[in-house]
């Protein structure tokens, strides 16, 4: 596998700087050759371009960790049932993707590279196709929005209930689509552990460019319908572990941390749990009272909040990974990290500096980490 990874990295370096053009070429070729595939993709393609590349780069980087890659690709295949992707589509995509890479790599492209991309693509496609064989599962779930509350300037917390049985584990995420932005699916973590009434909670922050998040914060109402794809992700509790737990959450990365807390509340008696929560501004700590009530009730939970971008803030200040190391040492703990890709990356490298074995760190970055 190491050889294959090297060959892929080497060949990718030929096109990396022109990756935008590779992706443009790929989609142009795909939609010309197979016009019916156009309907599987969003009307607005900008975000999709980044996501395709991010998924490929992430998969190639994970070749050295087959178990994790397997889980990721099966989950992705299951998720892609929402697009009505069929097994034959994978071969069509392969022809166009390899063509785009080959054309942009130029004269240094060779048969070894071609074979390596063929092999790795077939391997990934086989796992995604296997993941999509979902038995009686629907391609996506219809869910009705039950409540929608604005928490501060730009955050909304909403709940919904899927109309068909929906099974997931605390810490997982789903991609969802709302009627306000049809065919634009975005991933959000479920912010609760499974509940008897089947309801799901989501936390969304509207940021400048995120049209779906903006619609979910500003336009979604109780009674609206959502589509949810199959749950994905591996940031789930290691219930066999006896180690204490550190949850590191940046912004709405609180959602999966809160879901894991909900799970721990059900059975934990013996593990100390430390929640590190970072926001840019002091007024960003939505859900504060709710979490404080949990900490009052369960003495095993401690919460550290830190603000990174407000110089006069009276409480703890700094990037959350710096705050985490200030509160160390952390020798014998399990870590769960959620937030933006740069925040997750910064935290992972800090944990690596602290010599925490990677097997004790779980995260699910929505973009490449
Ligand atoms: N499962 C997961 O990993 C989840 C990830 N998310 C992602 O989390 C992000 C949350 O965004 P917002 O609420 O706008 O939070 P934000 O971007 O405002 O950041 C909040 C915290 O992250 C820290 N941070 C931001 N950039 C950083 C960097 N480069 N290095 C170190 N720390 C950094 C900030 O200092 C602050 O403490 C979104 O990108 C969302 O997609 C959300 C939910 C679940």
Automatic annotation (TrEMBL):
InterPro entries: Cbr1-like_FAD-bd_dom, FAD-bd_FR_type, FNR_nucleotide-bd, Globin, Globin-like_sf, Globin/Proto, MRET, OxRdtase_FAD/NAD-bd. Its EC number is 1.14.12.17. Keywords: 2Fe-2S, Heme, Iron, Iron-sulfur, Metal-binding, NAD, NADP, Oxygen transport, Transport. Its cofactor is FAD; heme b. One of its GO terms (molecular function) is nitric oxide dioxygenase NAD(P)H activity. It catalyses: 2 nitric oxide + NADH + 2 O2 = 2 nitrate + NAD(+) + H(+); 2 nitric oxide + NADPH + 2 O2 = 2 nitrate + NADP(+) + H(+). Pfam families: FAD_binding_6, Globin, NAD_binding_1. Residues 138-238 form the FAD-binding FR-type domain. Residues 1-133 form the Globin domain. In the C-terminal section; belongs to the flavoprotein pyridine nucleotide cytochrome reductase family. This is nitric oxide dioxygenase.
